[in-house]
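Schema walk-through. Below, the input block comes first and the output block second. Nothing else is stored per chain. Lengths vary across the set, and this one has 81 residues.
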Amino acid sequence: RHTLNGMTGIARVNRVKVAKNYLSHANGLAIILSLTIAYGQNIKKLMSRIRRDIQQEVEYTTGMSVEILKITVRSISQPED
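--- output ---
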C-alpha cells in the first residue's frame, strides 16, 4: 500500500494480499492486488510501472524475491469535471 499510495493513475487500493509462495522451494512471495485506477490512464503502461515499483520496493525492503504478482483492475474511477 505504501508504494502505491503516492503513484499517479491509481485512485484506490482495494485489496492487498501477501503470502509465501508455497509452490516454490525458494524464499519467494506471492502478492495479489486489486486496484481502482483513474479514468484516462494507459493501463498497459500503468501495470508495468506498478509491477516494477512493487517488485523493487518489496525486494529491497524485505530481501525476499517476488515470484508471483497478480494485479486486478477492479474498476475505473469516474473522471473529475
